[in-house]
Structures
1.
Amino acid sequence: MLAKRIIPCLDVDAGRVVKGVKFVEIRDAGDPVEVARRYNEEGADEITFLDITASSDDRDTIVHVVEQVASEVFIPLTVGGGIRTTDDVRRMLNAGADKVAINTAAVFNPTFVQEATEKFGSQCIVVAIDAKQVSGEGEPLKWEIFTHGGRKPTGLDAVDWARRMVSYGAGEILLTSMDRDGTKIGFDLGLTRAISDAVTVPVIASGGVGTLQHLVDGVIQGRADAVLAASIFHFAEYSIEEAKRYMMEQGVEVRLES
Amino acid sequence: MNAPTINVLNYGFGNVRSVWNAVSAVGGQPRFCDQPEQLSSGDALIIPGVGAFPSAIKRLRDNDFVDPILELAASGKPVLGICLGMQLLFTSGNEHRKTDGLGLIPGRVLQLDTLPGARLPNIDWLPLEPPQGVTWSGILAKEDRGEFVYFVHSFAAHPDSARHIVATARYQGQPFTAMVRDQNVWGTQFHPEKSGAFGLKLLKRFVNLVAC
C-alpha cells in the first residue's frame, strides 16, 4: 500500500505567507522560509507554494522565496500561481522547484499543458483545478471550473476537464473546492471522489480542512492520494506530525519517522 | 582536504538546482557541467534527470556526453544516476519506443505494471528494503531498512542480473528496483536530494566515496 502524502500549502503574497477565507480576508502567517523549515522538521511530505501576488512588480519575489527554501529544505517543492509560459516553468525549476502547478493558463490555453509536459516531463507538471458546485439541490452533482480566485466561471465541467488535462500529460491534479476553501468544514468529498475515480494520476485534495478527521475523510472517502491544507498548520492548531499520527491511527498509511 | 568536486551533469533535463543544493549541503563542491570536456576533471559525477528516456539520451548523444561518461565510469570514479539519470545507465528503455541507453548496467527499463485503479506516475515516499538474501553494508547500512525515500516515476529498471540490485521498494505490493550498483556506478530511482534527512545522509556517503 502507498503512503498518503500530507502537503502544507503556503499562499505567498509579496514574500509573506498569508491565508484568506474563500480567497478574501487575508491573515499574515509568517515568513515563507521559516514556515517551510518548520514543516520540513515536522515531517511534511512536500510543500506547495501558491503565489497570489497581484502586482506584477512583485512577481520575482516568489522566485527568491523558492531559491531560499530549496537551499535548505530537501523535500519536494511545488510552485503555482502565475505560471503562463514554458519560461515561467523553467524559471521555477531553476530556482529549485520540483513541480509547477498550472491553473488559469491551462484554462485559457490548454495546449500549454501539453507543451510543458513535453518539455519538462509529466512528473513536474501539476494541473490545479479550482471547482465549484453548480448543481442545485436534488440535481445530479456537477462542478464547474472557475478562474481568478473563484470569481470567473468557465463553463467547463470539472470531471471532463480533469480527464482532458491528464490526456495532455498532467502528472498530478491539485483539486481545490472553491466552495470549501478556507471554510474549515472539510473537503468537498463528492468532488474529490468524482475526480479521483475519473483519472489515473494522483489527486491532491484541497480546500476546507479544519480538523484532522477531514484529512482522513479526503483519503478514505474522497480517495485522494494526498491532502493539502494551510490554516490548520499555519496557526499551529496541529502539527504535521500530529496529523500523521492521527491518520495512522485511523488506518491510513503515512510516512512517519521513528 | 578540499571538498570533493562533484560534477552535476546539466544537459537540460532535471531538477539540477536541487541536486546542486543537496551536494553542497553535505559538504561536496558541486559544479554544473554543460560541456563534455568538463567531465574529466572533478572527483565524481551525478547524472540527474527528469523527463523522458528517448529525448534525454538523444540530448546526451547530440552534446557528445556519452563517451566521456563511459570513460569516467571506466576510470573508477564514482558515478550516480538519479531517477531518469539512473534509467539511462541501463542497456535500453521502453518509454514511448525502445531506445538504447548508456549500457553501463545490463538490463531494461519498463513501465511499472499497473492493476486497475492504480495511480501512475507513482509519486510517493516509500520504504527501502534490501533484496532477499542481501545485507546492506556500505552506502546503505543495515539500520537503513525501512527508511522512506521520495519517488516520482512511471518506469522502473529490470537489471539482467539480480546482483546489481541494491534496494527495492514496493508499488502495488510488488517490489521494483529502487537502487542499483555495479562497482563504482550507482543509481537511485528515488530522489535522494528530495528525501529529507535520510536522502542527504545517502548523498553524503556518496560524496565521501571520493575520499576513500
2.
Amino acid sequence: MLKGKVFKYGANVNTDEIIPARYLNVSEAELLAEHCMEDIDLDFVKKVKPGDIIAADTNFGCGSSREHAPLAIKTSGVSCVIAKSFARIFFRNAINIGLPLLESEEAVNGINNDDTVEVDLEKWTIKDLTTGKQFTAKPYPEFMSRLVKTGGLIEYTKQRVANRK
Amino acid sequence: MNLAEKIFAAHCGKKKVSPGEFINVQPDLILSNDITAPIAIKEFRKIGVKKVFDTKKIVMVADHFVPNKDITSAEQSKFMRDFANEQGIMYYDVGQMGIEHCLLPEKGLVLPGDVIIGADSHTCTYGAVSAFATGMGSTDIACAMATGDIWMRVPQTIKFVYHGKLGKWVSGKDLILFTIGQIGVDGALYAAMEFTGEAIDSLSMDSRFTMANMAIEAGGKAGIFHADQKTIDYVKSRASRHYKVYEPDADAAYAQVIEYDVSKMEPQVSLPHLPSNAKPVSKVGKIEIDQSVIGSCTNGRISDLRIAAGILKGRKVHPRVRCIVIPGTQQIYLDALHEGLIEIFINAGAVVSTPTCGPCLGGYMGILAGGEKAVSTTNRNFVGRMGSTKSEVYLANPAVAAASAITGRISSPEEITK
Ligand code: SF4
C-alpha cells in the first residue's frame, strides 16, 4: 500500500521539466533528485516527502528519453505517479526501474492538489483519504506485471542470462 | 500487415504479428550517447555478463556535451569511451562524431527493414530509410546490449497521406509541424506513423529524416517511410551489410488513415511551448528574436545548410541577432566548406560550430537568458529547453530561421528573396 500527499500538474509534463538537461552532465540518482521537477515547480524538492504521489493530466513524461526523469522522481521519494496517460518511453523507463505508474482518468479528475491518497497496487485502487472518494486504475498488461513482480528489467534479464548458462 | 508489422514479424521469428502483442525483438543496431550511455553502462554491469552480445551491433556517439563543456561532462564522456574501448564496440568521438541521428544514416549503419533501438527519443529519425526505429531508456539499452533482444509491444499504425505539390519554401519540417499541430503532442501516442502520398514521394531524403525525427513529438513510437528509388540510392553506396525492403500488404490494417492536401501550405512555425502550437508563418505576427539556430538532428543536414546559405548569401544577420549554424556531422561540415557555404555564413555574420547538439537541449553553445526569444530549426520548444525557463523557442524550417536572422523578427523567406 502506498500513501502520500498529492502534487498535481497539468497535461504534457515533459522530461525537460522533470529534470532539465543542464543537470544531465551527471547520472547519479541522488544528484538528479535534487533538481526533480525544477522547471515546472521550483518548490517541489523542498516540499516532497517519502511516499508522496504525483498526479497529472495526459501524456505525462513526454519528450526526451532520459531515464534520469523517472529516476529523479523515484529518488526524490515519490511512491507512484497517477496520470490520464503516459508518454511511451517514460512508461517503459518507469516500469524498468520500478517506479509504479497508474493510468486513471477518473482519479486525476477527482483528486485535488494536496489531498492525501492511498494506492493499492494489487487491486489497482486509488483512495482519496481527504475526500473519501475511491477510483480504479487500468491494470498493467500481463507481461508488464510479470516484469514488475520480478523486480524490473535488470532483474528479469539477470534471470534470463543465468538460466541460459 | 502494414510496414511496421512486416518488419517486426521478420525480427521476432513470427509469420504474423498484430497490434498490442508483446514480442521479443532482435534489433539490428543498439545506440546510446554521452548522456544516456553512462546509466546504461552502470546497469549493464549489474546483469552478470562481461561482454556485449555483438560488438558490431552496438554504437555509442558522444554528441550532446562534446567537445566537453565542463568537468562533469568530461567525466561522463571518459566513462563511455573507456567502456567502448574495453568492449570493442563502434564508437564515435570528437573528430569523427556528429549528431547521432545525422551520423548513423551517413555511415550506412541504419538500413531499410532494420529494427533499431536507441537510448535517445529521436532514434525514430531512421524511419526515413524505411527502418523501424524507436527510442527507449538506458536500462532497455543495457539489457539489449547484454542479450541481443528486447521486449516490445507491436504498435497500432496511423497512416498519413499528403496530397499535392509543395510550395517553394515548404519542406519536411513544415509537413511534420503541421501534422503535430493537427493531431497534438499525444496524437500518435504509442502508435507508428506511416508517411505516404504524392508530397512525400517528392521529398528529399534529408526532408524525410526531418519528418521521421519529429514523430516522437506527436507521441509516436516511430515514423516510417516506404523505401523508394531515393532511399535505395541513399543507402546503396553506404551499406556494408545486407538489408531488405518491406512493402505493406494491399489489405494492410491501419488504426486510422489521415489525409491532408498540402498544396497551399505555407512554412510553419511552432510557437512556445509545444511543438503542436503550429501556425503558418504569415499568421505568427511580429515576434522579435535574439537568436537563430540552424542545426540539430532535425535540420542540420547539408540541404538544410544550402537552403540557409541561399538566403544569407550577400546579406547580413540583424545586429541584434546571434545566428548560430551547426553542421550535423564532420562530413556535412566538410561538404559545406567545399561548397562555400561556411564562407557565406561567416560573411553574413553568423557563427559556425563544430558538430554538436549544443543549444538544442540547452547544453551549451547558445543558451538563452530570461526574456530572450529564439527561432530554431530544432524539434522541441518546451519551457527552458534552450536555457532560461523565461526564454522562448519558436520552431521553424531553415529558410524561415535564416530569413528571421536577417530581419530580426520571425519572417517568411518570401520577404527577403522577392
Ligand atoms: S540535436 Fe537535439 S534533439 Fe537531436 S539528439 Fe541532439 S539534443 Fe537530441
